[in-house]
Write a structure and sequence with these properties.
Layout: H1 3-9, E1 15-16, H2 17-20, E2 33-34, H3 42-55, E3 59-63, H4 69-81, E4 85-89, H5 93-103, E5 112-115, H6 119-125, E6 133-138, H7 145-154, E7 158-165, H8 182-196, E8 197-203, E9 209-214
Parallel strand pairs: 3-4, 3-6, 4-5, 6-7
Antiparallel strand pairs: 1-2, 7-9, 8-9
Helix pairs in contact: 3-4, 6-7
Bound molecules: S-adenosylmethionine.
S-adenosylmethionine (SAM) binds near residues 39, 63, 69, 139 and 144.
Length: about 230
């Protein structure tokens, strides 16, 4: 069984992204599928799954576990790789416990941890001399994801690929959250890509996804206290 079939075996029901979440026609959300409005589209998760399969990361971060669908997909890729650990952060205790209870006890157990903590607090306390993430999927709240990135990057906690969800430049046509202005989120990501990355991909359909590769030459992960890792931008 692949990870989608596993989620279905736990009772997950796929629906078109267009019925789960408001979208404008240009986002072509009817061509995407999801287990619910709060979850990541499975097409997006398959892309992240493939990126983990091709980059073989040792340590992966997800901010925002919710019901654990993204966690399942990412941990499944690590299980296929035969190595690596996903740390998924969820600040809501009930959600963290429920997701853990669904995911535990199957063959991905060794490849993930769900930590019930606010992402910014976790990042503040993280010892990046020991823990560096080769891949990070920022999926908490739009308005704090650039800050999560910046704090982790500045302390040398990110080595290679970063992905940001909900990046559609058309989102505000159909789905306005006043506390999470989309234009500011997207502008912050444009800045991150320009300042810290050697390149990026902007997937505009459905909720949208940005994937960026960090520029190793200026990355504090490789320049703090002569610390070196085997992670590479190749
Ligand atoms: C969009 S959902 C995550 C979806 C999940 N990544 C997936 O792919 O299915 C966002 C989740 O982030 C959590 N969250 C929001 N802000 C957070 C923070 N600062 N730290 C940790 N979790 C946070 C919310 O409680 C919510 O469950």
């Amino acid at each position: 069984m692949d990870w989608v079939e596993c989620v279905q075996s736990f009772g997950g029901i796929l629906e078109p992204e267009s019925t789960a979440h408001p979208h404008c026609p240009e986002e072509q959300a009817h061509l995407f599928h999801t287990f619910g409005g709060g979850e990541t589209e499975i097409e997006t998760l398959w892309l992240l799954w493939a990126l983990l399969r091709i980059t073989k990361p040792q340590l992966v971060l997800e901010t925002g576990t919710f019901r654990g669908v993204g966690t399942f997909a990412l941990a499944s890729a690590l299980k296929e790789n035969g190595r690596g650990k996903l740390i998924s952060l969820e600040m809501d205790k009930d959600k963290a416990i429920k997701a853990y209870n669904v995911l535990k006890g199957n063959d991905i157990t060794d490849f993930f941890e769900i930590i019930n903590q606010n992402s910014l607090e976790f990042i503040e306390q993280l010892d990046t001399q020991i823990f560096k993430f080769d891949f990070a999927f920022f999926d908490s709240k739009n308005n704090i994801r650039p800050t999560e990135f910046k704090k982790l990057y500045d302390k040398g906690g990110l080595t290679n690929l970063v992905a940001f969800h909900d990046t559609s430049r058309l989102r505000e046509r159909t789905f306005i959250i006043e506390s999470e202005p989309q234009d500011i989120y997207v502008a912050e990501l444009d800045k991150i890509e320009k300042m810290y990355c050697r390149g990026g991909l902007d997937f505009s359909l459905a909720k949208g996804l940005r994937v960026m590769q960090l520029n190793k030459n200026i990355n504090p992960a490789f320049h703090y206290n002569n610390y070196t890792t085997h992670a590479s931008n190749d």
